[in-house]
Protein: Cytochrome P450
Amino acid sequence: MDPFLQIVVSCLLPLLLIFICYHLKKSSSSTNSGPILAPEAAGAWPIIGHLHLFGGKNLTHKTLGAMADKDGPIFTIKLGSHKVVVVNNGEIAKDCLTTHDMAFSTRPTIVASKLLGYNYAMFGFAPYGDYWREMRKIATVELLSNQRLDLLKHIWSSEVDTWASELYNKLCLEKGSEKNRVLVDMKRWFGDLTEKDFMDVMLNILDGANVDGVDADTINKATCLNLMLAGSDTTMIALTWALSLLLNNPNKLQKAQLELDQIVGRERNVEESDIQNLIYLQAIIKETIRLYPPSPLLLRATKEDCTLTCGYHVRKGTRLMVNTWKIQREERVWGHNSEEFEPERFLTSHKEVDLRGKLGFEMVSFGGGRRSCHREKKAESFTMMGEEGLRTGRRWGWEVTVGVVGEGRRGWGFRG
Ligand code: HEM
Structure:
């Protein structure tokens, strides 16, 4: 045989065999009369499964959303050797995160969490178990309790003030550079605002003790980093989107400014106690988080076998992805204008919907069940205080210019 042909045949033959085995295995498993599994989405390749569909320019939650339009509200995909069940519907998400909360209460053990998260010492990424339980208790009771945050309230308030002053100074210094306009990267500014330090409190609480075999120093580093990542990135994303949406919707911005003028006035900053009266601003935050959830996919793993109410069986070890982004744009729930920025819906047609999914799971931005975000209420007020920090600029006589902002587009600024 021609040597070239020999090489081609020896490379292709094993691939062909793998392909045939894969399809034989697939067809034999589909004729098994075992428990019913959610259907597998089309397009899997041997060995890598659906991996080739992700990455590149397309965002994962959008790709999965488009797959849901074809494959239905619940389907499975394969990411290499890992099977993932993908949920795109509020009712099924509620079933997973409340009725079967225990079965889905762990996080997947991924290499990134091990290597970057101090060997799973960052409790938000840790598997379900004694360490996670203990750390979640410490975080809830000692670090993020209302009492602790009230004690730190003055720091937050002065941070907002300093931040707004620095931003204003930057605008004054650079004023006139381009027809009185200054381009500001608000994502970076919001990022600076939300960084907090819990280290002192942790040093006092731990006092050299170790939790489930993890030493105090590692716990301290991991927990502070976890809270900074969990709290600052998400809040920064929500603030940046809120600002962007307001700039693109000047009539909503005016309504928000009017409400602030009426409830707070121009002589002082917003305080946390004002937030309950800032009804329209609350609706803006909810609508921002609905359209652009900072965590568009919830990631869990299955700790034990379970059968969902819809009849599908999920095996232990399967990963769970809840597509928050898709659920929060479902036309069936949010109406024909589900893709539009319409804060008013939270004052009228969707008045009863709250961020914690108490009513149904129309909103899943903060997750659900025992692994949910435990500071969702505070997150909402942090975001609003940040928004207000920005608007304190009104008192100094500068106003936001209406620019064109959108996904991947820049070009907004302030006018002094
Ligand atoms: C707009 C702001 C925020 C959003 C949208 C958000 C969203 C989320 C989501 C989706 C999860 C995963 C929930 C699940 O798997 O069910 C989560 C977990 C978590 N969040 Fe937040 N979060 C925000 C702000 C904060 C803040 C301010 C803090 C605290 C400083 C925080 C601390 C945490 C922690 C520690 C976890 C891990 C919980 C666990 O695994 O036990 N988050 N967050």
User: Anything to note?
Assistant: Residues 124, 136, 139, 144, 226-227, 230-231, 234-235, 238, 289, 294-295, 298, 300, 365-368, 371-373, 375, 378-379, 382-383 surround protoporphyrin IX containing FE (CB under 6 Å).
